[in-house]
Amino acid sequence: MNDLIKRLKAYVEENRERLIDELTAFLAQPSVSTTGLGIEETVVLLREHLEKLGFETRLLTLPGAYPVVFGQAGPKEAASLTVYGHYDVQDPDPLSEWDSDPFKPQIREGRLYARGATDDKGNLWANIKAAQALMEVTGGLPLRLKLFFEGEEEIGSPNLRTYLQEYSSLLSSRATILCDRGVHESGRPQIYLGDKGMVSVRVRARRAKRDVHSGHAPLIPSSAWDLVRFLGTIKDEQGRILIPGYLDEVSPPDEEELELIRTVPFDPVQFRERYGIAAPLVSGTPEKMLTALLYQPTANISGLRSGWTGEKPKTIIPAASEAILDFRLVKGQESARAAEKIERFASESPWGPFELDIQPHFEEYRCPPSDPWARLAMDTARAATGRDPVVWPLLDGSGPLCWFHRYLGGPTFIIGLGSPFETANTHAPNENIGLDQYLTGIVQMAALLYQGAGLGR
Amino acid sequence: MTSPETYIDQNRDRFLEELFTFLRQPSISTRDEGVRECAALLAGMMKEVGIETEVYETARHPVVYGQIIKEGAPTVLVYGHYDVQPPEPLEEWLTPPFEPTLKGGKIFCRGSSDDKSQLFIYVKAVEALKRTLGEMPVSVKFLYEGEEEIGSPNLAPFAETHKDLLAADLAFFSDSHIHESGRPILILGLKGLVYLDLRARGAARDQHSMRATSIPNPAWRLVWALASLKGPDNRVLIPGFYDQARELTELEKKAVAAIPCDEAGLLEYFGLKEFLPGRFSRDYYFNLVSEPTCNIAGFITGFTGEGTKTVLPARASAKVDLRLVPDQRPEDILAKIRKHLADQGFGDIEVSAHHSLIPSRTPIDHPAVRLINSALEEVYGQEPIVFPNIGGAGPNYVFTDILGQPCFVVPHATHDQANHAPNESMDLEGFFKGIKTAVKVFQRLPQNI
User: Fold this and answer.
1) Which of A209, A233, A300 is the best substitution to test chain B (most B C-beta atoms within 10 A)?
2) What is the pTM of this model?
3) Tens of pLDDT along A261-284?
4) From A290, which residue of chain B is nearest by alpha-carbon distance?
5) Same domain, A47 and A150
6) Which of A319, B184, B246, B355 is deepest in the core (most CB within 10 A)?
7) How sure is the predictor about A294, in pLDDT bands with cuts at 50, 70 and 90?
8) Does residue A284 form part of some domain?
9) pLDDT of A325-347, one tens digit each?
10) What's the 3-state SS for A244-288?
11) CATH number for position A34
């Protein structure tokens, strides 16, 4: 593999200027999915570029959805790999806080500043360039590569699941790699082998027909008290979820996963400082804190609303009160079962009745660390960068990995090729990608594509 | 000799004209509109009937003070407020808000019932008594403030610093409304109030909720803290909360039992299947009058829009109002809440008190109760309803607590007065009934207390 890496590095060095210019041109094309700005042009640009490189392309469409740009290349009979990226970007507002125009990319001190530089156009482009590099260095793609570029990630991927379902035979392959996010802040490559599931819950209490003067408080049932007392029974002050049976299915990390956790750099002091908290809810060794972060289910209140919240005092008994919660699901949990337990608990609550809106969003998913594709991703990352990758058994957040796994078959995981979260400014002004990051990403992915062919058909 | 009642009837039109002049003068305390002009106008009208009147400056809007003294006779202190609520929304008024308009036996104008007509009653009562009897049967003192609609911030300080000036045997509180059945009402007290802001803080900024296992969430802290305040039977769980709560006497219980109550109608009005039970009773008025409460007026945190946004909020806040009965003291209750939260491990919840009011309940066996009741019954032709106290809170404690006077709220507006709302109105006959009631009470007081 070392010889290949050398040749790829040489190629990238020789073509450095062109590779940067091309990414610059791609970033200069706006593609804001919240407003629709430049989406069409971006789709055309992407598709034409893939065609030029010899990809067979298609626009996948669904009613009311931005299209998916799909491209495939390489021998049909070879092992296939799907790579996911998204071509849409976050709205660049607030514009006044950018040091340069978000859609006029500018290089400053080795970084390319533009909206989408890391999230996710830089990641996406590195994959196209990796395929091209392999074609030019080795004369062709040794595996069947399927590129799947979504245009709705920044608006919550409302159609991703349907796309995967509808086009599953076209898209499915031996494995799917999502290229998004960045390398670790230490500069080590970064891989996430899974993500959490999620159930979102809205609870609304309605009592009197209208808000009532609180002089009547001895008599009028209060939506606020009922909601508060119900919420108080969901979780105790130690953070333990009290819904009957809810924790039964939760599984701790196995030895293989614990081994990975021990390799993830984590500094408890830095964690506290970053979030401005006196003490985390779970403290102790990095291993203990990370295990809690990744393997402990959550019940989170993300919003509460009731009655009068203005500056001056107003005395009312609120007629309606609402809470918005999210439950992150971890190893062993399943969203339908979790939703059912939450629903039963709420409907049997002595503080009810409540109006409930319970939505299962994602399932938790973890690719086994021993999976050959995961191993390959780690090995090629190491070979391309000379450093051990930071491998998370799963992301601390929720995401769509479960759907890729369910509809496309095969293992799936995330590789971050962008700048580290700490410096990339994703979703914020002055988003950027380190030029070396981008170029190394090309080598890393090219090596993976090359070696992937060896994993059979 | 003309009786005071006849004098009132003979001078209806002029009384009304004078009232209209008073009503035309805006006096919106919250935005300092016409308040000073209104104070001067009122002072002039009081002087005209022979009341020694002086406008006292306070930190914001002036107090109009007046007195007419009869040596050796009992003294009544009359409280009212000449300021009004802003008239907005203007487009909902059917007649101009500061042009008094007579329609269907009602005077439509901002401030007509709350409280200008009701305080003007006593000015005209003095005139009727003086002009017909030649001298006053009692001494009357007037304390008319210009800040009620902004929470009476200077009323208590004014009373504290003018105790001699305001010394009296009893106080008349001119505000509120009669019963919806048309029966007159006598209110002997109001609840006290403690109004709190509760704030919880977490991380420096809102965070992604995926870190919920590690980063403390102030919304949970607030929920747990609030939940610790109230038990499953709705009892307030703050230790000692009920210790000082004065129970109703047998006489007061009898009065409460006599308050007409259309429970089915009330349930329908509020859209409820049943009312909450109290500690001792399921009776509507018994609980309304005698139960102190802890109420959540509102709370807010994090994301409350449509759809899904998974945030771990950095701060959460709630507004809580506690209504107190005699002899609960606001500062004592506040201390008990703070101690309870600290004891329960919620010392991190910041508690700040907005303002507080001391509860009041004038004894129902005070001799003036029977006197006022019979005057009301004669004037209205119906038996009055007596409330030992109502569920609302107000500055009555200034009289009962600071000045040590029994305090009587004698309303003459009707329940559909729409005070604080567009098309506020005062019942025309209520205005004259008020004057007649005052005249009767003032005449009989010397023999009765």
Assistant:
1) A300
2) 0.88
3) 999 999 999 888 988 888 899 989
4) B214
5) yes
6) B184
7) very high
8) no
9) 999 999 999 999 999 999 999 99
10) CCCCCCCCCCCHHHHHHHHHCCCCHHHHHHHHCCCCCCCCCCHHH
11) 3.40.630.10
